[in-house]
Amino acid sequence: MSVRWTYAFLDLPASAVGRAGEFWTAVTGTRLSEPSGERGEFVTLSPDGADACVGLQRVGSGPGGAHLDFSVDDVPAFAAHASRVGAETVAEHEGWAVLRSPAGQLFCAVPWHGESARPPVVHGSRFDQVCLDLPPSGFDAEVAFWSALLPDWGSTPGSRPEFHVLVPPAGLPVRILLQRLEEDRPVSAHPDLACADIAAARARHERLGAVVTAAFDHWTVMRDPAGGTYCLTGRDPETGGLPRPSDRRG
Questions:
Q1: Residues 96-104: contacts with CB within 8 Å, 24+ apart?
Q2: Which DSSP string corresponds to 174-224?
Q3: Which entry of 27, 31, 190, 219 is 20 to 30 Å from 20 by CA?
Q4: Which DSSP state fits 97?
Q5: pTM to 2 decimal places
Q6: Phi-psi bin for 224: left (phi > 0), alpha (psi -120 to 50), beta?
Q7: What is the C-alpha to C-alpha distance for residues 189 and 243, in angstroms, rounded to an integer?
Q8: 108: part of which helix (H) or strand (E)?
Q9: Measuring CA to CA, how many Å separate 194 from each of 69, 125, 162, 202?
Q10: Contact 231, 177 (CB under 8 A)
Q11: One digit per residue, pLDDT tens: the chain, 250 residues?
């Protein structure tokens, strides 16, 4: 069940899509695609000379968040594999499916359309990771699920006890970080950017309207102008890995 491409989607209330689009296209050096979907609910952040790997989805209810799309050659086969390792099918559409992990994280199986060119690093950073924030009671089962779902990805403990990393094969643009929270609450997800210089990235994002909500040694938690949470992390934007042993988040 090889994944041929990955997308990170930000799920947004209708009132937030415009602000989010302005901010994230500026951050990533992209432009918004034409809307797609039955209700025009999807747009992607389209880079010049490369393939999109980030999108925005307008949701009908709830606060939003983030989810992953896995582009595959055979959607029914991938969905069947996901069900065998513990996923629940939420909805089946013409050509694509919505699924749910054991802890409740939504993800999608979609057709691969030949995407292969990863977007470049922009202003020293790259949108390259979705972090799943998991309750302690569901963390181990979720690690087992995602590792079984993606058997050809690297699945390794992170640099801290509360992290586990799933690294895709070379060329795929989005990886997964599983984070064990300190308290039991529903699973959620947010994007992470790998930054060569967190302070410089933070200053640029603040100029674009984002605000800092928390700062740690090797990552900074931000809120974008549309109210979405994301993190600036001290990782190599080219490889996604840690630049040195002391700089570790995921």
A1: 101/142, 101/145, 101/146, 101/187, 102/138, 102/141, 102/142, 102/145, 103/132, 103/134, 103/135, 103/138, 103/141, 103/142, 103/145, 103/187, 104/186, 104/187
A2: -EEEEEE-SS----EEEEEEEES-HHHHHHHHHHTT-EEEEE-SSEEEEE-
A3: 219
A4: E
A5: 0.94
A6: beta
A7: 24
A8: strand 106-111
A9: 20, 5, 19, 12
A10: no
A11: 699 999 999 999 999 999 999 999 999 999 999 999 989 999 999 999 999 999 999 998 777 899 999 999 999 999 999 999 999 999 999 999 999 999 999 999 999 999 999 999 999 999 999 999 999 999 999 999 999 999 999 999 998 999 999 999 999 999 999 999 999 999 999 999 999 999 999 999 999 999 999 999 899 999 999 999 999 999 999 999 987 554 445 5
**138 three-state secondary structure:** helix
Please give the torsion angle defined by the CA atoms of residues 30, 212, 174 and 68, in that order, rounded to the nearest 10 degrees. -100
The CA radius of gyration of the chain, in Å to the nearest whole number, is 17
On the 0-12 / 13-18 / 19+ scale of CB atoms within 10 A, 240 is: buried
List, in order, residues 6 or more apart from 169 with CB less than 8 Å away. Answer: 152, 153
Structure tokens at 234: 């001290």
Q: Which two tokens stand for residue 73?
A: 């050659």
Amino acid at 145: F
